[in-house]
Amino acid sequence: MIRGGRSYVTSPPSFSNDAKKLLVCTGNTVSVFSAATGLQITSLEGHTAPVTTLIVVPAASSPAQKILCYCWTASLDGTVRHWDFSGPELLKTIDAQLPIYSMVIPSLLSEPQVQIDKRRELSGKLVAYVSVEDTSVVKEGTKELRGHIRRFNLAKPRIPRGDTLKETEEPESIVISPSGEFFGIRHKCKIHIWDVPSGGGSRHAVSRKMTLHHSKFINAFAFHPTERIIAAGDVTGRVLIWRGFGNRKLALGNQKKKVRAMVDLDNAGVRGEDDAESCTTWHWHSAEVNVLNFSSDGAYLYTGGREGVLVVWQLDTGKKKFLPRIGSPLLYFMWSPDPTLSSVVCADNQIHLLKMPSMEILRTISGIKPPPSLPRMYEGLASTVAFDRSSGIAALCTENYCVQLYNLLNDRGISEIQVCERNHQPGDEITVVVTAVALSLDGSVMSTTEVKLPEDGIGGLVSLKFWVSEPHSKTFTLSTIVYEPHRDAGVSAIAFHPTRSMAVSTSFGGDFKIWVCNSDKNQADKDSSWTCHAVGSYKKKPMTAAAFSGDGTVLAVAVENVITLWNPDKNILLSVLGATLTPITKLCFAGTSEFLVAASHFPRPELSVWNASNLSLSWSYGLRIEAVTSAVDSSSFAVLALIPKSFRTDESKENIFRSRDGAILLFNGSDPKPVSIWTVMKAKGGSISFLEGDKSQLRLAYVNGSHEYVVFDPNSDESHERSAVDYDGLAGQEETGDAGYTSLYGQLPDYDKKRMEDAESLATPFVSSERPWETIFSGSTLNFPPLQKLCAEFFESLMEKRTAVVE
């Protein structure tokens, strides 16, 4: 089983002491990457909830000590762990009994570690300040303060309640000064600062506190490495510099006398009674400031935010220079022990390693980018994930109108394709939506559709694009653009032929078009452009889905709630399958078999399996399906279904689902009973696909709505987290269908049985009604019985039955 797609940007990363490794919080684990190659080396596994804090134990400046590889981690699972990440090896686990959102250990900075000092731990001087969430004091329905800043002694395996320094509505992130003398939190428009008492771990040591005020909400702040200077960024884009903070409230006794004369001075820019000499404001950012960090010598301040621009301020003069066009909002900026190397973390799940001071991007550690924000009208209709089954590569639509190619087997980003050109700008309204991406079976061709949204009802444009893979690199170049491929209507689906350079696009406007590559028409011609081969429609109704059969000889197109079968070469309508209850949104042939899988959404969701050879409904379930996939060389297929809320909230099944909202069901051809069921999280907006690069092993890939994924062998017992799910209750009532008339219009009444029952119940001669045809022919024509039964019933009603006379 392969898991990947985790977020790299939930917490700040940290460099090793030799600056050759970068440690990154990735969900419940810590991933260790090589700074030279950007590849993952190892991981620290043991936490059972997301890791929120990562602290590398600093070593002395001697080269021999820089090889030490120790770190502390804290997690929402309520534990603090001590690691040797060169192994990796877990050295110690401490139970804090509460979810930890942030942690700092001041003594690690004030006294760099030459080795793991056991004597310090035993003497109780290794003290941590943590931000925890304590819901035990919160009464239901009240707004109590659940965020607590507490002091813990890490020498004990089970941490007691600890001393509470501050309570807030929600847990806040703790920021510590590079010297380890001060730490603080931001809370709305305030910065609360404490000094670290010289008593270390003594129970009687008291941290003194001061507060700085601002008129706007503060997003981030940082301490100067050597002087009493604090920089903060607010939600409006302003950067504030407080100088000389804490000279009164946080100063030692002999220092208080020297600054006593300054109390009554008019401190420029300082609000009220704040303990600071001055406050300076800089304003360049147009939106909130997320990144603040001083250079190691304190001469420069680095800031960043939603603009995707890293700004370098000279602290004394206020002059600035920029690293523009990073392409995504900035979240963190971290220095390494090597002054020529730093990292910047972006909201699109990428970490850029920078060469300093030129700020050149050396390499990028790229995770799966988050899915794009779609307008409400496209939610549930866009197809934003496609799979290359042969290589295990996924093509995912992301922000900024990009398609990212990601290797699911290696958990690595490969390349990005800019579907339409756009520079990142904060607060931009969505003007273009990439509604679909599709890959050919061999991964050599990609197709995308995009919609330029109209402004005030004017200027909308639909584009269909074909991209061709480069021979030696896994990226794509644009081959063909088709503007308004279906007149003014949007493209509802794209599907590729399994063996030829052929594709089909369907339209809500009531037609489908078959596209072929010019090189497919003439093998000697290497022209990679695409042209329209044929156009088809059925009663001018919207066409919502399409799929080719396993051998490519049949094209299935969904026309609202019926399925039409076509010959794609001759563009001839072959037959029509019976109607479903609601419009079909997804179609898929079950490998090389004769079975066709259809999924419908609203208003009544349905999963139905049809037999294309005898045009009959095999079976159906009342399930809402997010994705369908099938194996190429067998009749197996899998669906991703949303579990009904009523079924998940059943108390008897609470332990089975554990907040999971979806299920993957594996079927084999016409058998309505699933072979396997796996419950999953974040199923809405998810996708699944079989991966068949290795012919000896069939794999199933699941990408959830947040672009996290898992790849597993569906036939392996190790990967089966098969919950004891009652699939009958999960799927609702199973429906099995019959051929012909019954599959279209439902079961007919049993007229022969009814006639026998009526004859047995008659005690008197039958008297025909005066106008019997009025009741016989009443009702919908769709419910009429076969002609021979209808005629027999009609003529019988016109005749009188005579009772037998016994002479």
Automatic annotation (TrEMBL):
Residues 403-643 form the WD repeat-containing protein 75 second beta-propeller domain. Its main location: nucleus. It is found in: Nucleus, Nucleolus. InterPro entries: Beta-prop_WDR75_2nd, WD40/YVTN_repeat-like_dom_sf, WD40_repeat_dom_sf, WD40_rpt. WD repeats lie at residues 211-242, 282-323. The keyword Nucleus applies. The keyword Repeat applies. Keywords: Nucleus, Repeat, Ribosome biogenesis, rRNA processing, WD repeat. Pfam families: Beta-prop_WDR75_1st, Beta-prop_WDR75_2nd. This is WD repeat-containing protein 75.
